[in-house]
Amino acid sequence: MRENQDCSICRRVSIWRGGRNPYFIHEFEHSIFIVGDHQFHRGYSLLLLKEHVRELHELEPSVQVALFQELMRAGRALVDAFNPWKMNYSCYGNLDPHIHWHLFPRYDTEPDHLNHPWLHASEFKEHLIDSEAARYLVERIKSNLVI
Ligand SMILES: [Zn+2]
What we know:
Blueprint: H1 8-16, E1 24-27, E2 31-35, E3 45-49, H2 61-82, E4 86-90, E5 100-106, H3 131-142
Antiparallel strand pairs: 1-2, 2-3, 3-5, 4-5
């Protein structure tokens, strides 16, 4: 499995594998599902590819399909847990060139719900959660995850 010692996501994956973190939700075959460390958008979570790969198109077609199914199972769990108005999925990797998805449940009660979720990125740090809050969210998401 490809790994890069200089990659912050590879380091996070190695810590989170096996659930050694209160933010850990589930380990899929190709990815790790974790709750975000801020909750500006309630239920914000991430899906990290276990392997260090820069671009989605570089994955084997069978892995592309499997990863997408893992993403959909993660998204479904967030919808069932938080009943958002809409789901937003983003996959950029400009800062961390290692395939990962941000899963943003969106709510029509947000003032800018028609806009992209990064609009309020400067405020995310005001919504950091502690381990106890993370454990609560993880349990709620896990109980809605269909494995
Ligand atoms: Zn990496």
